[in-house]
Specification:
- Helix 7 links the parallel strand 8 and strand 9.
- The protein folds into three domains: 92 residues, Cobalt-precorrin-4 Transmethylase, domain 1 (3-Layer(aba) Sandwich), CATH 3.40.1010.20; 82 residues, 3-Layer(aba) Sandwich (Rossmann fold); 100 residues, 3-Layer(aba) Sandwich (Cobalt-precorrin-4 Transmethylase, domain 1).
- The strands form three sheets. It has a four-stranded parallel sheet, sandwiched between helices. A four-stranded parallel sheet has the order 3-2-4-5, with helices on both faces.
- Helix content is 41%, strand content 17%.
- The longest helix has 19 residues.
- Helix 4 packs parallel to helix 5 and helix 9 crosses helix 10.
- The protein is an alpha/beta fold and 285 residues long.
- It binds iron/sulfur cluster (SF4).
- The site of iron/sulfur cluster has 14 residues, from helix 1, helix 4 and helix 8.
- Iron/sulfur cluster binds next to helix 1, helix 4 and helix 8.
Length: 285
């Protein structure tokens, strides 16, 4: 049986950068605000090196210490609170997220009556950081049903969380564009931005080819990873024999009966070492 790891799976550039920063500062027991990456196994590895995961309620005890902001970014009030408490920030916000934050802020500041709409997951750390650029005024939607309820008489600026599903975003974009055009009689009151990260978007066609090239797909991710969920749904649509696992103990021997090729893939938050452990486990079976 041939077992292959998807060469395009594994940490994206933004996550790699944040993890390198955590490793570089591990000897000073750096604090990371929130889970550094949506993968509990990788978080455990970094905790053993000395990194500590903290939340905002820990801020008073961090005064005078270093605290890292992960790739998802944070809203402006986090920086203000940290500054007041003299917490030194190591900012590992992904440059792609940072650019999106700046763009949202720019369009919000153009005219506070404009509607800033963000397609993404409510409460997700990146989305909270994006909404924070608009003083909490941006509206977060995650479905066409929610898009249907939006006030269409305003100027609409539509953005997406960087890890959203490209096709679903396109559906919402087309729907709102049409609705705005019908209401105003022209295209001048609606503008949409392609803000899905290329690391996620470009993986979709490659993942589909990978899924078609194997009898079984083992997709490794954490259930909390947004892009993990989205990429796994693509695996499932493309190859029915796709299984979601978080660790080698989830592997079930019966999945591999009569299969000649197994493909292992993962999210942008899945470490390569974990996929390699899964590969070893499959081979040992
Ligand atoms: S998925 Fe893209 S935007 Fe998100 S952390 Fe990775 S590189 Fe940055």
């Amino acid at each position: 049986m041939k077992v292959e790891i998807d060469k395009y799976a594994g940490f994206c550039f933004g996550v790699t950068r944040a993890i390198q920063e955590a490793e570089k500062n591990s000897e000073i027991e750096i604090a990371c605000l929130g889970q550094i990456v949506h993968n509990a196994k990788e978080e455990e590895r970094l905790n053993k090196l000395g990194m500590k995961t903290v939340s905002k309620k820990d801020f008073p005890s961090l005064s005078g210490k270093k605290m890292m902001i992960r790739a998802h970014g944070e809203p402006p009030e986090t920086y203000l609170q940290a500054e007041k408490l003299k917490i030194q920030i190591i900012d590992a916000t992904c440059p792609v997220v940072l650019k999106l934050q700046q763009r949202i802020k720019e369009y919000y500041n153009l005219n506070k009556n404009n509607s800033i709409i963000i397609y993404g997951k409510k409460g997700h750390a990146e989305v909270n950081g994006l909404v924070g650029q608009t003083n909490g005024q941006a509206i977060v939607i995650s479905s066409i049903e929610e898009a249907e309820k939006l006030d269409i008489y305003k100027n609409i600026y539509l953005f997406s969380q960087t890890t959203s599903d490209y096709y679903k975003y396109q559906e919402i974009l087309d729907f709102l564009e049409e609705k705005s055009k019908n209401f105003h009689g022209n295209n001048e009151h609606f503008k949409a931005f392609q803000t899905i990260c290329p690391s996620v978007k470009n993986r979709i066609p490659k993942l589909k080819s990978f899924c078609l090239a194997h009898d079984i797909i083992i997709f490794v991710s954490d259930p909390n990873s947004s892009n993990g969920k989205m990429l796994f749904s693509i695996c499932k649509e493309t190859n029915q024999n796709s299984h979601f696992v978080t660790s080698p103990t989830d592997i079930d021997k019966s999945w591999f009966i009569n299969s000649k090729t197994v493909g292992i893939s993962g999210a942008t938050s899945t470490p390569l070492w974990l996929m390699e452990n899964i590969k070893k486990e499959i081979i040992s079976l």
